[in-house]
Specification:
The chain is α/β, with parallel strands linked by helices and about 260 residues long. It has a single domain, classed as NAD(P)-binding Rossmann-like Domain (Rossmann fold, 3-Layer(aba) Sandwich). It has eight helices and six strands; from the N terminus they run E-H-E-H-E-H-E-H-E-H-E-H-H-H. The chain has a six-stranded parallel beta sheet with strand order 3-2-1-4-5-6, sandwiched between helices. Helix 4 runs parallel beside helix 5. The protein is globular.
């Protein structure tokens, strides 16, 4: 992925990792367009970053997503980078299920179906560009699940798998496919407490390391900061070591 001169669309760009990526890429001289449901958040980001633009979209609705993709392609014909970052994460108690699957279903739609839908809709435009990139923001939890968030972890594992297939099928085209699996980062993904949790990686440090990897390792297809590597590589240690690490990881994340 080239680092400047792009027209970049970032979903979930109003806060957290999406905003961090948007501002870092905007600072390099790219034309950045952020997208999300909350216009007030988007307006705050664009006001703080003159030249950045925004579009509102409800990615949980297939017709809205298609209309959004058509609008983006029409308004930004030079669009050559799509960063699928929007996601939601909620805890679920599988031992005492309520019978209400709305949280699980919303996570599947937002985290898995939405990036598949949007990527599919924008691929004709991306393939027409001389150089283009699709980046999927997954999670370290795609490789070692956090048991309290089972559906979230499952969607991230699924989009990791989808990303590998997409990359393979697009070999020989102008479209490169990247995966960015964050570790636990200080955002408000699971609520305000996460933004100050000392166990989480500071957002600024995460964004800085991501940008360094993108700049210095242009051949990398998985953008893995150092703090996510224990999760990413856990299965390579073998079943026994993985099981032990899984137990320790989940115990530590449940601790107050």
């Amino acid at each position: 992925m080239k680092m400047t001169g792009n027209t970049i669309l970032i979903t979930g760009g109003g806060s957290g990792i999406g905003r961090g990526l948007a501002e870092a890429l905007h600072a390099l001289g790219n034309h950045v367009v952020i997208a999300g449901r909350r216009k007030d958040l988007l307006d705050g980001v664009t006001a703080a970053n003159p030249g950045m633009e925004s579009l509102t979209v409800d990615l949980t609705d297939s017709e809205s997503t298609l209309a959004f993709a058509n609008e983006a392609a029409s308004r930004y014909p030079a669009l050559n980078v799509l960063i699928n970052n929007a996601g939601i994460m909620k805890a679920e108690n599988l031992r005492e299920p309520s019978g209400d699957l709305s949280d699980a279903e919303s996570m599947v739609v937002t985290n898995l179906l939405a990036p598949i839908r949007l990527t599919t809709a924008l691929l004709p435009l991306l393939k027409s560009q001389a150089e283009a990139t699709v980046m999927m923001v997954t999670s370290g939890l795609a490789f070692m699940p956090l048991a309290m968030t089972p559906t979230y972890c499952a969607t991230k594992a699924a989009i990791h798998s989808y990303t590998q297939s997409l990359r393979y099928q697009l070999k020989g085209t102008s479209v490169g496919v990247l995966e960015l699996p964050p570790p636990y980062v200080q955002t408000e993904l699971m609520g305000p407490h996460q933004a100050t949790d000392p166990r989480a990686m500071p957002l600024g440090e995460f964004i800085a390391e991501v940008m360094q990897i993108l700049t210095t390792q242009p051949e990398a297809v998985e953008i893995c900061v150092q703090r996510v590597l224990p999760l990413r590589l856990a299965e390579s240690k073998g079943p026994a070591a993985y099981a032990q690490m899984f137990e320790g990881f989940n115990a530590s994340m449940h601790a107050d």
